[in-house]
Amino acid sequence: MSDDDEEERFDAPPLPPLLILGVVGLLCGFVVVALVWLSERGCDRVRDTPNCGALGLPLLVLTVVVSIVLGALALGRLAMPHPKLVAFLGVTFMLLIVVGFLSDDLFSTWTLLVVPALTAITFLVAHLIAGRLERADA
Q1: Is there a contact between 119 and 71 (Cβ–Cβ < 8 Å)?
Q2: Over the stretch 79-126, which tens digit does the pLDDT of each residue have?
Q3: 92's torsion region: left (phi>0), alpha (psi -120 to 50) or beta?
Q4: Secondary structure class of 105 (helix, strand, coil)
Q5: CA angle at residue 65 from 21 to 136, to 5 degrees?
Q6: What is the C-alpha end-to-end distance of the chain, expressed in Å?
Q7: Residue 123, burial from CB neighbour count under 10 angstroms (0-12, 13-18, 19+)
Q8: Domain ranges of the chain
Q9: Contact 20, 87 (CB under 8 A)
Q10: C-alpha to C-alpha distances, 47 to 39, 43, 105, 116, 123, nearest whole angstrom
Q11: Would you put residue 71 in left (φ > 0), alpha (ψ -120 to 50) or beta?
């Protein structure tokens, strides 16, 4: 077996790509939910209200950055193409949908399941878009 064959073997994802994207998207969605929940609990302890006030936006930005970085690291470790772009687009699309359509019901218990499922779907969409962008460059 030549060195080129070994490189190609290691470059291929170890699992089906759609499964990887779905699971990593699901996990990133749970990270977002967990960090928002922790932020609310922290603000509640410090300010005696779940409203974070002026700290709300920086905490949300930190939540987004952490989830994008974790998603990109996971996708990269699993040999997925364009891990940073897919993680960025996947989390961003999820946030746009949540803020645009679901913001009235954000603090209900069903968001514990909807946000991760939505993030898994947006990671799949982001992967399709990244693939089309790659083909457009070629």
Answers
A1: no
A2: 999 999 999 999 999 999 998 887 777 777 888 889 999 999 999 999
A3: alpha
A4: helix
A5: 50
A6: 30
A7: buried
A8: 18-137
A9: no
A10: 12, 5, 23, 28, 35
A11: alpha
